Amino acid sequence: xxxxxxxxxxxxxxxxxxxxxxxxxxxxxxxxxxxxxxxxxxxxxxxxxxxxxxxxxxxxxxxxxxxxxxxxxxxxxxxxxxxxxxxxxxxxxxxxxxxxxxxxxxxxxxxxxxxxxxxxxxxxxxxxxxx
Length: 131
What we know:
Layout: E1 7-11, H1 17-29, E2 33-35, H2 45-48, E3 70-74, H3 78-90, E4 98-101, H4 111-127
Helix pairs in contact: 1-3
């Protein structure tokens, strides 16, 4: 039986005040969280989430840029997810548009690759016309 290990990978481009407020919510709910910094965005999701079989890779000299908040959830769903989103809203933290869950597929992706995919999906959802 797989033991659930709740975890949030959180990237905030400004990293200071906004991240502190979000981390206060995570802590209040008892959900461990990792602040993904710019040097980490070329690492695989599995590495950042501490999954077995994933190790840290060398950081390239040139790093891509991420300008938006990103929240990646591991083993958080159902009512627990509802509680998390409600707590963020109650704390008046602006809605985090780019959210994902760790999957068997994306755990092999670099954080930046997941960010790019989330941006594409978010753009398509916002621009899709009702039929």
